[in-house]
Amino acid sequence: xxxxxxxxxxxxxxxxxxxxxxxxxxxxxxxxxxxxxxxxxxxxxxxxxxxxxxxxxxxxxxxxxxxxxxxxxxxxxxxxxxxxxxxxxxxxxxxxxxxxxxxxxxxxxxxxxxxxxxxxxxxxxxxxxxxxxxxxxxxxxxxxxxxxxxxxxxxxxxxxxxxxxxxxxxxxxxxxxxxxxxxxxxxxxxxxxxxxxxxxxxxxxxxxxxxxxxxxxxxxxxxxxxxxxxxxxxxxxxxxxxxxxxxxxxxxxxxxxxxxxxxxxxxxxxxxxxxxxxxxxxxxxxxxxxxxxxxxxxxxxxxxxxxxxxxxxxxxxxxxxxxxxxxxxxxxxxxxxxxxxxxxxxxxxxxxxxxxxxxxxxxxxxxxxxxxxxxxxxxxxxxxxxx
Length: 387
Hints:
GO molecular function, one term: nucleotide binding
Distance between the termini: 40 Å
Domain GFO/IDH/MocA-like oxidoreductase: 134-258
Domain Gfo/Idh/MocA-like oxidoreductase N-terminal: 5-119
CATH superfamily of the largest domain: Dihydrodipicolinate Reductase, domain 2
Number of helices: 14
Number of strands: 15
Pfam families: GFO_IDH_MocA, GFO_IDH_MocA_C3
Protein name: Gfo/Idh/MocA family oxidoreductase
Structural class: alpha/beta
């Protein structure tokens, strides 16, 4: 087998995007084996792009058909865990779309289930882990080039969505249909990246607004304070009503700093000595010289600048190719599915912190308490069954 046969579950915008990537040969070691799509109105489009593949109405039938070696789940978030577990149970590899699920209890169940099927691969579509810019930033942090992290700040408000976006589907921006708002739908990549690069926080305090600037019941404005447990802190700010938008990430270490603008332009400040040492050694004359601009700043730090052009499509194709290469050739997996719980837990904790008006631990996060609070909100909507 030199190509992995992928079954696409759901041929909407995202599923169609993956289908196009494979049809155009942008993933050398993967092809479309079959498609599951419940809406027959999409059949003509699917047959146009994939004339040889079978279209199934039931994903379970496709999983058992022998037409596919792996699946990708481009369906509403609540369905990701149950579809993944059914595929694994039937000997099929899984690439889940993000997020891994809506609440930690179901994601833990999936992770436990996947761990018992270690002959199969379970991965998640964290395509930004394949972004050269963030891969390089992670290398810099992991190599200790800016020292121990003291603070992280990420303002990511480039997720503007008009009311028409939310009105497209009844399930969108609902607790029972989608499971949340910007934290669940738009920002999971950043929630993953900040933990992938800087480490998993130990606690979080969230201030969240629901239907703040849109006629929705879920969150469209979020400010969260992260506590890494070692003195380091962080902030995470996101929303869907900032038309201008800001995307700025700062990671401060005791030996330097990384500043990222618009996920494209990066400045890395590397200090010649740690801030602790400079603090101990610099006398008042040195401080005066520094503040008056008389000191050669190169004696304090050097600056590296680099940028990365947007690679829309290429990052997704890279995750697909890595997933196939891991299965076919044993290549290390870029985004193991088991790590998907980190972003889900952080999003859940931000919600729970706001709902209870207290800091929430991620170390001993209460899965049952979160689900209980989520179900209260699903019940209030009166449109969906509780979980």
